[in-house]
Amino acid sequence: MTTTRAAVFGRIFAAVLVCAAAVTAQEPAPTPGAESPAAGAAGSPAAAARYLRIDADDVPLRCFATEQSPAYDERLSVGDVVRTTGTTNGDYVEIELPLGVIGYVHAGFVEAVGDAAVKSKARLSFRYSPGDRRAPVAFVDPGHEFLLVSRDGDWLRVRNPGQTAWIPSSAGVPLGAEAALPAWTDLEQRQRAAIAAVAAQAAAERAAKEAAAALTTRADAIRQQIDVEVAKPDDSEDWGPIVEAATAFRGEVQETGGALAERFGPIAGALVADAERNQKVAELLRETRAGPKPVTDVYQPPRPGVNPMQPFDATGWMRFERGTLFGDTVTTIEKGGQTSFRLVCSSGRYDLSMFDDLEVAVRGRIDRPDPADTRVLDVERIVVIGRSLR
Questions:
Q1: Residues 235-283: pLDDT tens digits?
Q2: CA nearest 149: which of 141, 158, 140?
């Protein structure tokens, strides 16, 4: 009887030990607050939410409730007012900002919502600094909106509405809602102004790109018109509308000012110069093909049966080269690959650069300052014979 009673007591005692072990096994092991976003959940809620006026400078916003926790890319200054959530953890208090804390998301996982916000396309990580090597502070679901602060390569610096942070409770003094409202409102306005500035910059950049694209299209169209007109027979060229279009384009570019004018000004100027040059060449070619007519200068039309080029001192292709020293230029006339003369026009009657790459006949006064130098021809008259198709 004694043995049986002892056996029963032994079984009861063993059962008690098993139950105690099972209860102990169900209790979660504590984890350091710096390692897990859930550290704040172990805090004790205060009776009600309240405000804190920061009375220290350069206060970091911690991701978790510990001094070893990483901090967000933002700090508080003396006089800032933040709102507590009513949760504390040791010496730390959980706080929120008007538009949320600043962190980072990867640009590849969000899409634009206007110029001031982005929206997550899939579940993504919200991080306290740019880069994949940093542990995420939180995970957000698709459709979550962030307020855009700036760009850092492939990473976007954003405010995450609703995301809280931790600061030492000693960093500020409690304030009632009425006393805190002006400073809280001021902080919100400053945050919104920064976001608005980013949005305005984005809108300006987009407008500049659109304007540049429109100007590029206009310039390409005028260039194409020039190419088409040059390919026409000389007697059917009509350069008036093209010169007018290029001149109007140059005026529009000058009115834009700033970077667009600096970028497209030389392009517009080159289009005007090219169109005007071709217009002048076409006029000269028409005059040449129209044959001789009475003139008041010393030139007289050749007699029948006489080579029409005989009264000229040289025929060939005119080459205009701009020098690099003091902006000097050199104009020559070539025939058969050989330079016949170096050309000048002391009277100013002709702008020799207008005849570059044209086949011409020239007449004037010939001079050779030095036997070793190329002969110089001071041009008195030029007749255009043809143009290069290269």
A1: 788 999 999 999 999 999 999 888 999 999 999 999 999 999 888 888 8
A2: 158
- Judge if pTM exceeds 0.85: no
Q: Which of 222, 214, 318, 335 is nearest to 268 (CA)?
A: 222
How far apart are the C-alpha atoms of 91 and 88, rounded to whole Å?
7
CA distance 140 to 154: 18
The enclosing H or E element of 330 equals strand 329-335
Task: Show Cβ contacts of residue 332 under 8 Å, excluding neighbours closer than 6 positions.
Answer: 318, 319, 321, 339, 340, 341, 342, 343, 374
Structure tokens at 93: 């208090």
Contact assessment for residue 95 and residue 62, using Cβ atoms and an 8 Å cutoff: no
Encoded tokens for 286: 């028409």
Separation of alpha carbons 72 and 159, rounded Å: 11
What pairing do the DSSP bridges indicate for beta strands 338-344 and 376-387?
parallel
Residues 310 and 381: their CA atoms lie apart, in Å, by 13
Q: Would you say the C-alpha torsion 147, 150, 156, 159 has a positive or negative sign?
A: negative
Written as one string, the DSSP assignment of 130-186 is SSTTSPPSEEE-TT-EEEEEEEETTEEEEEETT--EEEEGGGEEEE-HHHHHHHHHH
What is the β-pairing status of strands 376-387 and 358-367? antiparallel
Buried b (16+ CB within 10 A) or exposed e, 92-131: bbbbbbbbbbbbbbbeebbeeeebbbbebeeebbbbbbbe
Q: Would you say domain 314-387 falls under CATH 2.40.128?
A: no
In tens, the pLDDT along 48-69 reads 458 999 999 999 999 999 999 9
> What tokens does 95 get?
């706080």
Return the domain boundaries, the chain.
Answer: 34-175, 208-286, 314-387
